[in-house]
Write a structure and sequence with these properties.
The chain is an alpha/beta fold. Helix content is 48%, strand content 14%. It binds nicotinamide-adenine-dinucleotide. The site of nicotinamide-adenine-dinucleotide has 29 residues, from helix 1, helix 4 and helix 6.
Length: 256
């Protein structure tokens, strides 16, 4: 379905971004990976799906590096048809203890980077009259949790940015939507499990049970592949008139 299209997925060296890149590649899309750490292993995993893959290591907190990444993707593949703004970080502390540097970093990576990349992707998408911008927000873009002020603010902001981009392109073939996962067992969540286990003297299994019990009625993690399939749906013809939604895949978290 996506043969001949190019998807750039930020923060795709692990976790949700890699899962989304994999599901888009299974539909034939060429992939530009981004993110920190080892990129050879994710690159080979996507290449094994029979598509072209490249990698750019832009730090998504640095606008000049985002400019370079978007130019790299256009030079390599002609244009970016599908932009998935997924890179994100977490920092947990009550507001009075929240370091201003961490606040700036969370806002830059989880929110401003999506603006910087979308700004540069839109002209070619509009010229082709086809494009998909998919912002990986969070259920915490819809409801709040304690100790996550920067993350909750950034993700609510990302849902707002999604709606504006959707509206500004509503008469074109360019759509913009947000995906709002509940807990997904990635490095980001494992760090929170480890911190909770250490603080409370729990095993990993106890920490996992408590994390799910507190927020997710399904008592099951959402998987990166399920989120990737939602991204595929947004890219399908059935998604042509899905515009500005914030679609939670959260095991019932926000329904409570
Ligand atoms: P993860 O830590 O496994 O992956 C994050 C990715 O972002 C990695 O590839 C990392 O290298 C990259 N990254 C981090 N900082 C970067 C930077 N400055 N520049 C470029 N890349 C950077 O986390 P994840 O759980 O897969 O999270 C992916 C997205 O999903 C995030 O936006 C996160 O907020 C969101 N999310 C995660 C969950 C969850 O439960 N895991 C739930 C809701 C939303």
């Amino acid at each position: 379905m996506l043969k001949g299209k190019t998807a750039l997925v930020t923060g795709s060296t692990s976790g949700i971004g890699l899962g989304i890149a994999g599901q888009l590649a299974r539909q034939g899309a060429n992939i530009v990976l981004n993110g920190f750490g080892d990129n050879a292993t994710p690159r080979s995993a996507i290449e094994a799906l029979g598509v072209k893959v490249d990698y750019h290591g832009a730090d998504m907190s640095r606008p000049a590096e985002i400019v370079d990444m978007m130019k790299f993707a256009a030079d390599r593949f002609g244009r970016v048809d599908i932009l998935v703004n997924n890179a994100g970080i977490q920092h947990v502390a009550p507001v009075q203890d929240f370091s201003p540097e961490r606040w700036d970093a969370v806002l830059a990576i989880n929110l401003s980077s999506a603006f910087h990349a979308a700004r540069l992707a839109l002209p070619a998408m509009r010229a082709a009259n086809w494009g998909r911008i998919i912002n990986v927000a969070s259920v915490q873009g819809l409801v709040a949790s304690v100790n996550k002020s920067a993350y909750v603010a950034a993700k609510h902001g990302l849902v707002g940015l999604t709606k504006v981009i959707a509206l500004e392109n509503a008469t074109t073939g360019v759509t913009c939507n947000a995906i709002c996962p509940g807990w997904v067992l990635t490095q980001m969540v494992q760090k929170q499990l480890d911190a909770n286990a250490a603080a409370k003297g729990w095993t990993n299994a106890q920490a996992t049970h408590e994390l799910l019990r507190e927020k997710m009625p399904s008592m099951q993690f959402t998987t990166p592949e399920e989120l990737g399939d939602l991204a595929v749906f947004f890219c399908s013809p059935a998604g042509n008139n899905v515009r500005g939604v914030a679609w939670n895949m959260d095991g019932g978290w926000a329904a409570q």
